[in-house]
Design a protein that fits this description.
The structure holds two protein chains of two kinds. By secondary structure, chain A is α/β, with parallel strands linked by helices. Chain A has three domains: 235 residues, no CATH class; 158 residues, Histidine kinase-like ATPase, C-terminal domain (Heat Shock Protein 90); 133 residues, 3-Layer(aba) Sandwich (Rossmann fold). Chain A has 13 helices and twelve strands. Chain B is 77% helix and 0% strand. Chain B contains six helices and no strands. The longest helix of chain B has 27 residues. Classes of the chains: A alpha/beta, B mainly alpha.
Chain lengths: 544, 118
């Protein structure tokens, strides 16, 4: 508005100036011309009167002319005054104009600033309005979400209660069914077994075997489902107890060797000597993993072998990571099934369960057990070539004295004046063993036999408290020597024999026990390990 | 084989002897006296095709290799045993024996060097 007023004012000023200028020009020009013409006319009249001798008239005219000129002078003066006034007025107007222009410019600047401020205020206002509207919208949205969450929370709580109830019912059902199925299953298996031992027709043999085999399969499936159910419910607890890995591997071999033999494939179990004698962890779950993986390997192998290798992967202070490998020469797994092989109810091929049986839960359960023990499992395989399942489990390292059936270190009496027969053919090993025996037994008496034959002769001639028996020797090996010693008349045949092996396979360790040896030690062994073994045997002997 | 790579690792021996330098030295000397000779015998048994004796000798020095921390030698010896046990030598036995001898010779030098510096 102010801006419009200013423009209007300037326009008016311009118009006034132009009008004044025009009026001024007209007034001065016309007045001068009239006066000049009148003076000229009087001059002419005076000249005519004077020529005509009419001097009186000439004087009058002259007076009139003078008066007229005075009047003219007066007019001129007034005109000059008017002109001056006009000029002054003009000057004043110009000054006013300049002032007005300056004022206008100032006003324009001021107005621009005000406009800018107005724009800022307006913009700010609009933004504020938008923010407020946004906040209101957000608040409304949050309230809506809150309401929905509350509703969902209530639904979830209800669903959770239902799920817990359902889980409880499921567990009860499974426990009940498990019991109900196991009882008749055991009866079927027991009676089939008794029937098999009784006189029966040869033609019935295959039916009896089929009943036993089917019952065993059903029991495996039942156990798998129970395990899976407990795993899903988070009911599996991992124990932390001392155990001897060698025992678990021997147990595995005992359980599965007939299955492997029945299929005409070899089962080899190997335990690395570096593995600590005692580990602290869950032997039951380790055993289940080994049985699952090895059982699968045997199941899917028609020719060749299944090799179980347990070795020490890492050892750091009181902890050890054990690596287990189950290697078979079986049907293998196609590459596209490898990733899914650990999923529930998944087998190598869709027709595998029809051909080989099983639920496809064994690997899932094994993986879960391994992961529960902070371990991991992987598989490599080539169809037609075989598979390698590799798992790792970390354990704490224990001592033999941690074992409940072993003699507690602190309660044992010192070993003194024992007679030991060392059966060993390697000079280095003899030196080490003698050093160790001397360290742990005060006044120890040691005889050295270079092979089984010499050992047998020594035992026949002398009485010993302990025989430390190497296995791989020329002329007569440790197994044969032990068997021969056990055939000797009492009390010679009662001597305690500890097998000393180097990187023996589990079946070789088993052979030591089968040959009548009492215990086993892997080379290299520490004096402490040897002492506990000897103390343990002497303790057992004294209590039987 | 990398000439800079150490074959021996005496940490087990040090632990076993509880850091007794005299005992360590005695064990190393015993190893140097017996193990290289057995490796030579293994070579001879192979040449004489007496594989069972070869296997027994390979078996007997495994613990020694382990005491000296020569794990590569121990692994080769296990392989030799495995090939003989399988009764299926397709030429790898000769290679493995050569490998065992090469490792043994290098380890011998390292052990001798250790004894000189001890």
């Amino acid at each position: 508005m102010n801006s419009l007023n200013s423009y209007f004012l300037i326009a008016l000023l311009c118009m006034a100036t132009a009008l004044y200028s025009q009026i001024n020009d007209i007034h001065s020009t016309e007045t001068t011309e009239v006066i000049d013409e009148y003076s000229q006319w009087l001059d002419d009249k005076i000249a005519v009167a004077a020529e005509n001798g009419n001097y009186k008239e000439a004087v009058l005219l002259q007076e009139n002319l003078i008066a007229q000129k005075d009047s003219l002078l007066d007019i001129d003066k007034r005109a000059a005054i008017v002109e001056l006034e006009l000029r002054f007025e003009d000057s004043r107007q110009q000054s006013d104009m300049a002032l007005a222009t300056a004022k206008y410019a100032s006003q324009v600047t001021k107005m621009d600033q005000q406009s800018l401020q107005q724009y800022i205020y307006m913009g700010g206002g609009i933004i504020m309005v938008i923010i407020v509207l946004g906040m209101l919208s957000r608040l409304s949205f949050l309230r809506k979400i809150q309401r929905e969450l509350k509703e969902k929370g209530m639904k979830i709580a209800v669903e959770k209660m239902r799920a817990e109830e359902s889980e409880r019912v499921r567990e009860q059902f499974l426990a009940k069914m498990s019991h109900e199925i196991r009882t008749p299953m055991n009866a079927i298996m027991g009676m089939s077994s008794i029937l098999g031992k009784q006189k029966h027709y040869q033609s019935q043999e295959k039916y009896l075997n089929a009943i036993l085999q089917s019952s065993e399969n059903l029991l495996v499936i039942l156990n798998d489902i129970m395990d899976m159910s407990r795993l899903e419910a988070g009911k599996i607890k991992i124990e932390s107890v001392p155990f001897r890995p060698v025992n678990e591997l021997m147990k595995l071999r005992d359980i599965l060797k007939y299955k492997a033999e029945g299929k005409g494939i070899s089962l080899q179990c190997e335990l690395d000597n570096d593995i600590p004698e005692v580990l602290i962890g869950d032997p039951v779950r380790l055993s289940q993993v080994l049985i699952n993986l090895t059982g699968n390997a045997i199941k899917f192998t028609e020719h060749g072998s299944v090799h179980v290798k347990i070795k020490l992967k890492e050892r750091d202070g009181g902890k050890a990571v054990i690596e287990g490998k189950v290697i078979d020469t079986g049907i293998g797994i196609p590459e596209h099934r490898l990733e899914k092989i650990f999923e529930s109810f998944i087998q190598a091929e869709s027709d595998t369960s029809q051909k080989y049986g099983g639920t496809g839960l064994g690997l899932t359960i094994s993986k879960e057990f391994i992961q529960l023990q902070n371990g991991k499992i992987s598989v490599e395989s080539q169809p037609g070539q075989g598979s390698i399942f590799t798992f790792e489990i970390p354990y704490k390292i224990g001592e033999l004295s941690d074992m409940p059936n072993e003699v507690a270190e602190t309660t044992t009496v010192p070993l003194k004046a024992l007679k030991v027969l060392l059966v060993e053919d390697n000079d280095f090993n003899i030196m080490v063993a003698k050093d160790e025996l001397a360290e742990i037994i005060e006044d120890v008496k040691i005889d050295i036999a270079a092979n089984g034959l010499e050992a047998l002769e020594y035992v026949k001639k002398k009485n010993y408290d302990i025989v430390l028996m190497d296995i791989e020797m020329e002329l007569m090996n440790g197994y044969e020597a032990a068997r021969e010693i056990r055939k000797l008349p009492a009390p010679k045949n009662k001597v305690s024999i500890i097998a000393i092996t180097a990187n023996a396979m589990i079946q070789e360790i088993q052979l030591c026990y089968d040959a009548g040896m009492d215990d086993h030690l892997s080379k290299p062994f520490t004096p402490k390990e040897l002492r506990i073994k000897i103390q343990n045997l002497l303790f057992k002997r004294s209590t039987t | 084989m990398d000439a800079q790579t150490k074959l021996i690792d005496l940490s087990f021996l040090a632990e076993f002897t509880k850091g007794d330098q005299g005992k360590m030295k005695r064990y190393i000397e015993m190893y140097l006296k017996s193990a290289p000779a057995i490796i030579d015998e293994i070579q001879k048994e192979f040449e004489n095709k007496n594989l069972e004796n070869l296997r027994l000798k390979a078996h007997s020095i495994k613990p020694q290799a382990q005491y000296m921390g020569i794990i590569t030698l121990k692994e080769v010896l296990i392989e030799i045993e495995g090939v003989i046990k399988s009764g299926n030598d397709n030429g790898q036995l000769s290679t493995l024996i050569k490998k065992a001898k090469a490792i043994s010779e290098k380890a011998t030098i390292e052990l001798q060097s250790f004894l000189q510096s001890a």
